[in-house]
Design goal:
single chain, 346 residues, alpha/beta, MutS, DNA mismatch repair protein, domain I, Alpha-Beta Plaits, DNA polymerase, domain 1, 4 domains, 3-stranded mixed sheet, 13 helices, 12 strands, DNA polymerase IV, DNA_polymerase-Y
Length: 346
């Protein structure tokens, strides 16, 4: 979907259409959860400070999020997907992979199917979507950003290598900002320059990810579209309206976070052995502290006991703006993916 949260707000409130808006945060506090395309022109994007966003775009309008509404529309969109195939792998409320090799419409053209699906979405919910069509998930994902918003890009089998060779390395899915900078330092700016590096070179500089980069630039990515994604971790987080500087106040907040986490664990009958405390400081630096137990944990009291140990493990280096708890090393490999919504104060 194109700027999903912001587009929903503009859909429901016509006075916001054509204007730069940010979902989440406020003029003096918080973090942007999503930005309209009008705001993105000014460098406003998700996960940046609201203060910086407002500085970049003085006319920016902040809108409180309505996740129930986003989930409602997401559900309508996913119903459309299942009209075409049962092989749907949701990544979030606004994105999914579809395998249409064999589809319910009997149409051999994935390009035409993508056009139909995008039109169905627009006719049903009034929002635009973009699509990437290709031989595997990696290339389709990269292609989906190629003609945004409200467009699509098909990379046919005989076009894959040329497409990847000319692609800027920063546009490779899975290559983040830090990795991009490292690749620049190594003289890698395009797919072609990445392809020229040996497997040994890439593994030396990027560890296990080196093999992934070596393969994908050659069009090799064998991950199937999984209609039931395996849960690897369950988490709950909270960004605070006011920074916390006392561990006592932090424990009060962590108790509430642990309660939310416990509800999710019980709902999906999940337990885990590794408990991780996530701390984001007021200067936006981030730290995690983990402990692995010899047994599975899902009870709030036990989680809090371990979290307390992790919290007091060392002194805080600054005031804290975000706390989170996650559980991994889970007791099942058959559960469906659990969507965890990040919470903010607005």
């Amino acid at each position: 979907m194109d700027a999903f949260y912001a587009s929903v707000e503009q859909l429901d409130n016509p006075s916001l259409r054509g204007k730069p808006i940010a979902v989440g945060g406020s003029e003096n506090r918080g973090v942007v959860a999503a930005a309209s395309y009008e705001a993105r022109k000014f460098g406003v994007r998700s996960a940046i400070s609201s203060i910086i966003a407002k500085k970049n775009c003085p006319d920016l309008i902040f809108v409180a999020p309505r996740f129930d509404r986003y989930k409602e529309i997401s559900s309508q969109i996913q119903k459309i997907f299942y009209e075409y195939t049962d092989l749907v792998e949701p990544l979030s409320l606004d994105e999914a992979y579809l395998d249409v090799t064999i589809n319910k419409k009997g149409n051999p053209s994935a390009t035409i199917l993508a056009q139909e699906i995008r039109q169905r979405i627009f006719d049903t919910v009034g929002l635009t979507a973009s699509a990437g069509i290709s031989v595997n998930k990696f290339i389709a994902k990269v292609a989906s950003d190629y003609n945004k918003p409200n467009g699509q890009k098909t990379v046919n089998p005989d076009e894959v290598i040329a497409f990847l060779e000319q692609l800027a390395i920063r546009k490779f899915h899975g290559v983040g900002k830090v990795t991009t900078e490292k690749m620049y330092q190594l003289g890698i700016f395009t797919g072609l320059e990445l392809k020229e590096k040996s497997l040994e070179f890439l593994e030396k500089h990027f560890g296990k990810s080196g093999k992934f980069y070596y393969n994908v630039v050659r069009g090799v990515h064998n991950s199937e579209v999984k209609s039931n994604r395996i849960t690897k971790s369950v988490a709950a987080e909270h960004t605070f309206d006011n920074n916390l500087s006392s561990e006592i106040f932090m424990m009060e907040k962590l108790e509430s976070i642990a309660s939310s986490l416990e509800k999710r664990l019980k709902k999906h009958k999940i337990a885990g052995k590794t408990i991780t405390l996530k701390i984001k400081y007021s200067d936006f630096t981030q730290q995690t502290r983990s402990k692995t137990m010899p047994y599975f944990v899902s009870n709030k009291a036990l989680i809090l006991q371990i979290i307390s140990e992790l919290l007091y493990q060392e002194r805080m280096k600054n005031s804290v703006r975000l706390l989170g708890i996650s559980l991994s090393n889970l007791n099942t490999e058959q559960k469906q993916f659990v969507v965890v919504q990040l919470k903010f104060d607005f």
